[in-house]
Amino acid sequence: MRRNKRSSSAFHSSEIGKLIDQCCKSADFVTFQLKDSPFFISYFQTLVDKKVLHRDILTILKDKQFISLEDMKHAIQVEDLVLTTELSSVKQKLMQGNIIIYQQEAQPSCLLIPAFLQENRQVSIPETEYSVVGPKEAFVESLDTNINLVRKRIPVPEFQIKEFSVGKLSKTRVAVAYIEGIADEENVNTVIQRITDIGYDQIIDSSFINQMIADNKNSPFPQLVDTERPDRVASVLMEGKVAILVDGSPSAITGPATLGEFFSAFEDYVTVWNIASAFRLIRFLAITFSVLSTPLYVAVLTYHYEMIPQDLLTTLISSRAGIPFPPLLEAIILEWTIELLREAGARLPTKVGQTIGIVGGIVIGTAAVQAGLTSNVLLIVVALSALASFTTPVYQVSNAIRLIRFPFLIFAQLLGLLGVAACTAIVVAHLLKLKSLGRPFLEPVYPIRLKDMKDALIRLPFNQQTSRPLQTRTDNKIKFRPHSSPPDKRDIDE
């Protein structure tokens, strides 16, 4: 065999030949002619598994003489061989790690042999959705591995995958997963239509898809659930929802979603229902406290200090004695400091970030109080509100909570408690209008669907969750039919 960067001029006058010429400009592209043969082999060595190349392809090609590519196709024992004349198919397969074999003459046919190199990290534990109890597997950057993690949890032929290539330059593999007969066809078609309409050049992560197919692209609230847990994806698929997996992304997107889903952790389903319900209510209360605590502090101290009890008012006056800033500026300084600590901790290495977050918070907070720049009461309130914002199992919601606190502060300064109420009304009105894949985002609160309340604010026992959510518009609404419980029989000792 001899390596050659140029083939015959006759072949390179064709469209496929021009493609080979263009690829030859890259240092990692290899093309050579088989010894005593009219066939050429070309591939990107950084995309091809050399073991497959030498063991399954070159070993056969050097021992036999072939007359045509058709004979070669039958001799090579590799799956998914394609003999084609389409330039688009050759270009796509070549860039995905296929080896192409062509003749010296100007014949348009090419034999495409898959030999792509797979470099994937091992399946590890979830990082952003970690749970003490339950499965410990998380998605990785390989689409095939991620589909395997979901399919082994749904071992039925009705589990369907529709795959697309999205991105004019990236050609990213995007898979739409659903269970046929359970998922509503309108939801599936909506997802497929929005994905195929994407005209962006590059799709690097599932978050790109999440932003591009959202119903309201200007809303700070996420309208689709982004999760790294295959068990969660399998669970929502069985409820009749649709999942989107992207090659190169360690997370999946599920929808249609409701606001309550962002406060639901997978641990809620592996613990006793009453304990899970209590924890879920704690999350709702924590988020409410995170949004309203600092604005209420500003509103009360600015306009409504007569509402404060006498004993508490004395404490607040003593804590604010000597503070040169009004309550609004004092709150914004502390909120901004908390955000700086968050960003610094997130961008630094894990061990350094944790140290910066803890030490920085203690040092800056203590120094600010001692310097008379802020009150110790507000410092406690801001710290608790920042801590409460992390109680959401889905990270994207905590970002929205961090953002909307600042408009609440502005309204509280302008109009006091009336401003807080007005800002609350604006947020609620926005949530009422929000949709997820065309379905109501605040369901089952609005529109009111009492049957779906069994797994919204609280989680009822499994034997009472006999039907799937009405929001999914599923054709198969019944999960299971409960059997009538037999009469209690007394024990022999009773």
Automatic annotation (TrEMBL):
Q: Which InterPro entries match?
A: Spore_Ger (IPR004995), UPF0353/GerABKA_families (IPR050768)
Record flagged with keyword Iron-sulfur? no
- Membrane topology designation: Multi-pass membrane protein
Going by the UniProt record, its keywords in alphabetical order are:
Membrane, Transmembrane, Transmembrane helix
* Domain of life of the native organism: Bacteria
Membrane-spanning parts: 284-305, 352-369, 376-396, 408-432
Where is this gene product found?
Cell membrane; Membrane
Q: Where is this region: Disordered?
A: 468-494
- Please verify whether the record's keywords include Zinc-finger: no
A Pfam entry, by short name: GerA
Report the family membership: Belongs to the GerABKA family.
PANTHER family for this protein:
LEUCINE ZIPPER PROTEIN 4, SPORE GERMINATION PROTEIN
Q: What is this protein called?
A: Spore germination protein
